[in-house]
Amino acid sequence: MDDQIIKSIELKAPPARVWRALTDWREFGEWFHVKLEGPFAVGQVSRGHITHPGFEHVVWEALIEKMESERLFSYTWAQIEFHDKERYSPDYSQAPRTLVEFHLEKTASGTLLTVTESGFASVPAGWRERAQRGNEGGWAQQMKNIEGYLAERA
């Protein structure tokens, strides 16, 4: 497996609208299915709880890296081995981290959104492939989520 995941989608919304859906913590929470505690700020940790059924016990935590208006939003987040209630731990202090980057590019009919997650080489070999495969499917779903969210709230 490669060290990164790349997903792209052309959204029928201008970059300013896509940017707001990505960086307004309330809007991000709606389509990403996470109840965040507060706004995103560069250099700060953002936390919340996943709201996707069956994963409500999982804490979402990310360190906001960059917010370059209508161009790039990025954060690092912890990769955890277990998401099931019995083995899950919300202590991410020793967890390997990957970098998530949302790139926006204006197109004739809206915005090309490309999500890249990289750094899987830092995940222990015993569960790296499982983590990457899970995130690959997760990003495919999140691209559908933001597309649907923006279509409903144009």
Keywords:
Alpha-D-Glucose-1,6-Bisphosphate, Chain A, domain 4; single chain; 3 helices; 154 residues; seven-stranded antiparallel beta sheet; alpha+beta; globular
Describe this structure in words.
The longest helix has 28 residues, at 125-152. The chain has a domain at 4-19 and 65-152: 2-Layer Sandwich (Alpha-D-Glucose-1,6-Bisphosphate, Chain A, domain 4). It contains three helices and seven strands; from the N terminus they run E-H-H-E-E-E-E-E-E-H. Helices cover 29% and strands 35% of the residues. The protein is an alpha+beta fold. Strand 4 and strand 5 (72-78) form a beta hairpin. The chain has a seven-stranded antiparallel sheet with strand order 1-7-6-5-4-3-2, covered by helices on one side. The protein is globular.
How many strand elements? 7
Give the N-terminus to C-terminus distance in angstroms.
37 Å
What radius of gyration results from the CA coordinates?
15 Å
Q: Strand order of the main beta sheet, please?
A: 1-7-6-5-4-3-2
Produce the secondary structure layout.
Layout: E1 4-11, H1 15-23, H2 25-32, E2 34-36, E3 45-50, E4 59-68, E5 72-78, E6 97-107, E7 110-118, H3 125-152
Antiparallel strand pairs: 1-7, 2-3, 3-4, 4-5, 5-6, 6-7
Question: Care to give the gist of this entry?
Answer:
The chain is 29% helix and 35% strand. By secondary structure, the protein is α+β, with helices and mostly antiparallel strands.
